[in-house]
# Entry
Amino acid sequence: MIPCRPTHHARRGLTLPAHRLPRLPGRVAIPALPEQPRVPRPPAGLEDFNTAPADQAARALLTCLRSLRWARRIAAHRPYPTLEALLAASDEAAYDLTPADLAEALAAESLPALPDDAYGAAHTALSAAHAAYESRFGHTFVICLGGVPPSEALDYVLEAIRSRLTNDPEEERVVAADELRRLARERLFDLLGGAAARQADA
# Structure
């Protein structure tokens, strides 16, 4: 199971293909989806983020949450004095997502592959659960797996899908928005701090 934090960074600027942005990490798979090319990350570190050109900062932010308004809002309020201040700004902007912003962000979420050792019944169960969820709510299921042990992730996701299928559409919109907020925070934390920042904040 792939955790909700991306793992790769680059030390020099962000290079994006003209036609699309990279997929966002952090969700469980429907099997046999092709891998998409990964895009280098901008330099890790709050100071580099604070001083990057606005368009580069916004593009970096879009690797964490694919809402243009969210990314532009955070980029426009630089510089941030601490990583925690940036994460708080991320949360605040995510809480303010409109239904259109939420739909935009959910539409960009994609499904990474299940681990190679996942048993066949897991593929079948997840495929069926995702199909039922998308049929009910009209968008893909999204969940943050931060803090969930890999050995427990499959059961955690299946239980979450089945539980959330009982929500009405408005209840699920609120839950999905909060999962996106958590995903954005986790991704942004790793993008600009990673393990070193995790130790510093501990």
Observations:
- Confidence is low (pLDDT under 50) at residues 5-22, 25-43, 195-202.
- DSSP finds nine helices and no strands in the chain.
